[in-house]
Amino acid sequence: INSKKECQVDLEFTTEHYNPEEGEERLGKCSAQVFFKNEKPRPTINVTCMRFMEKSKRQQEDYLLYKHMKQLKDPLDVISIPDSHGHIDPSLRPIWDLAFLGSSYVMWEKTTQFLHYYMAQLSSVKQWKTDEDAIDFDYTVLLHEFSTQEIIPCRIHLVWHPSKPLKVKYHCQGPQAPEEASGIEGSAAAPTMGLTNY
Amino acid sequence: MQGLLIFSLLLGAVLGKEDFVGHQVLRISVADEAQVQKVTELEDLEHLQLDFWRGPAQPGSPVDVRVPFPSLQAVKVFLETHGIEYTIMIEDVQSLLDEEEEQMFAFQARAASTDTFNYATYHTLDEIYGFMDMLVAEHPQLVSKLQIGKTYEGRPIYVLKFSTGGNNRPAIWIDTGIHSREWVTQASGIWFAKKITQDYGQNPAFTAILDKMDIFLEIVTNPDGFAFTHSKNRLWRKTRSITAGSSCVGVDPNRNWDAGFGKAGASSNPCSETYHGKFANSETEVKSIVDFVKSHGNIKAFISIHSYSQLLLYPYGYTTDPAKDQAELDELAKSAVTALASLYGTKFKYGSIIKAIYRASGGTIDWTYNQGIKYSYTFELRDTGRYGFLLPASQIVPTAQETWLALQTIMDHTLKHPY
């Protein structure tokens, strides 16, 4: 690998069941190769997992989570998760997790071998619509980029239904020029993530 | 709902000096329309002075009523005679009010001593400054407070000095909170201060250190920034100095030191989080430490604490040239992180700044190292990005505890390797 033009990162990590049950085996093992080319973002990712949940079971679990989320109290007046003290109300946890899911797509679109992102905070919820067939979630997050230490506010709009690929649109504020992009997860390059295995 | 009613009762009690001793709140289960009727009749009996929190509505809906002590027997007999079921929700309204009042005021009240101070929560600048004064008052022989300067906005900059005597003994410097949003660091600083007063005379290895060396601890190294994280922006990093010609505020205090100042690894854009400032030591928060270190002249270890990413770093950040003492610094770092991991298994990586994290110029420990302070280290505490700067308060004490083990390792080595 030509280290000027290409960069490969090999990872090993474990996954955990989103809602672990008593006595159930908790950890799945995964390995991944993340491939950066020409210092560009949107690295190619190859993931292999052992003990991955069977597809039908995954779908079932996704659907249960989806139903649970649909019943959540409207979080429109919520700001800052976690709060200044790092606290997340347990009832709001699924909202943070869903926000993280959308943010992870945005972060993948921006990550290069030199730019690394973290989701610092869910700063506000603009819209949380569950009356139709999908969860329509419009929110802002603060991303923290490590090498520049900058905090980047991003407005994200995601639409989630368990049987369809996640739809993410976003707009991040930049110090130079604002970026704008949209995307649909679930294409061949990016693996679709079931929330239960997140 | 009950909380609101209790509160208004409390307010009434406090303001109107009403007394609720012996009052009970009953929950009445009305089984049918007839029973609903009967309870409604009770409502009309003014002399009973009943206070319905949840009035009679329909069968199945509970009825909640506060009954003054003198009316209790009459009401209970009435209900029992008519076969109406009830339970006692609140046995004594006054004692509940008293308890709540205690809690309310306790929550706001300051700790009276460093023993009752809550180390497992994040504090304001005032609370931290109050803590310092208490600690000095409780251990006047060991601890003193020095003011080394003033911030851009005029706040005092304090350093705690821990000393068992001597005259300008070789010293260890520890600072936390230079980047204001890294709240676990100031919180850990408070814990370290208390720990020092607890361990001296109790822990032989630590006592040996403090018997020969002084410790300087600057808990809030960036007070203006810290106040700003409480009042306006929790994720503020820099100082709050105004830059002429720019609408952006603040300089990165960890790019403002005179070591590779202005080189690659800092920004010349005032709006950037890593803006180095117009010149080295432009920030009083930095200059105060520089002046202190130079005039003291006998500091042997300098440790600057940040968060997050779980790293222990040594110079350099502004150049790939290895530090002269690289081998020893690396070896000591390894021992320190091993000690740290021994408590909760928290894994830290270690190395030079430029290799382990990123190129950074004008950094604190590059300057202190170039001044001849060999044991110059920077910590990046928990976590690795899940909560980042917004680390849950429940992790403050474990973080401080494990970090202390690493600090002790470094201090111990400094004691045993005088130079």
**What is the C-alpha radius of gyration of chain A, as a whole number of Å?**
17 Å
When the domains of chain A are counted, the total is 2
Distance between the termini of chain B: 68 Å
Class from secondary-structure proportions of chain B: alpha/beta
The total count of strands of chain A amounts to: 9
What's the CATH class of the largest domain in chain A, please?
A: Alpha Beta
**Main sheet attributes: strand count, strand direction, barrel closure of chain B:** 8 strands, mixed
Shape assignment of chain A = globular
Query: Which CATH class of the largest domain in chain B?
Result: Alpha Beta
Task: Tell me what you see in this structure.
The complex is a heterodimer of chains A (198) and B (419). Chain A has 198 residues and is of the alpha+beta class. Chain A has two domains: 1-52, no CATH class; 72-172, Nuclear Transport Factor 2, Chain: A, CATH 3.10.450.10. Chain A is built from two helices and nine strands; from the N terminus they run βββαβαβββββ. In chain A, the strands form two sheets. In chain A, strands 4-5-6-7-8-9 form a six-stranded antiparallel beta sheet. A three-stranded antiparallel beta sheet of chain A has the order 1-2-3, with no helix packed on it. The longest helix of chain A is centred in the middle third of the chain and has 18 residues, at 93-110. The model of chain A is unreliable at 176-198 (pLDDT under 50). In chain B, helix 5 packs parallel to helix 6 (183-199), helix 7 (204-212) crosses helix 13 (396-416) and helix 10 runs antiparallel to helix 13 (396-416). Chain B is an alpha/beta fold and 419 residues long. The mean pLDDT of chain B is 93. Chain B folds into two domains: 19-91, Alpha-Beta Plaits (2-Layer Sandwich), CATH 3.30.70.340; 113-241 and 249-416, 3-Layer(aba) Sandwich (Aminopeptidase). Chain B is built from 13 helices and twelve strands. In chain B, a hairpin with a 5-residue loop joins strand 5 and strand 6. In chain B, the strands form two sheets. In chain B, strands 5-6-8-7-9-12-10-11 form an eight-stranded mixed beta sheet, with helices on both faces. Chain B has a four-stranded antiparallel beta sheet with strand order 2-3-1-4, with helices on one face. Chain B has helices at residues 2-16, 33-44, 72-81, 93-108, 125-138, 183-199, 204-212, 223-231, 284-296, 326-344, 353-356, 364-370, 396-416; strands at 24-29, 51-54, 63-67, 85-90, 143-150, 156-162, 171-176, 214-218, 299-307, 311-314, 349-352, 375-381. The A-B interface holds A 80, 82-87, 118, 120-121, 142, 144, 146-151, 175 and B 121-122, 183, 229-230, 234-235, 237, 252, 267, 269, 271-274, 309, 358, 385, 387-393, 395.
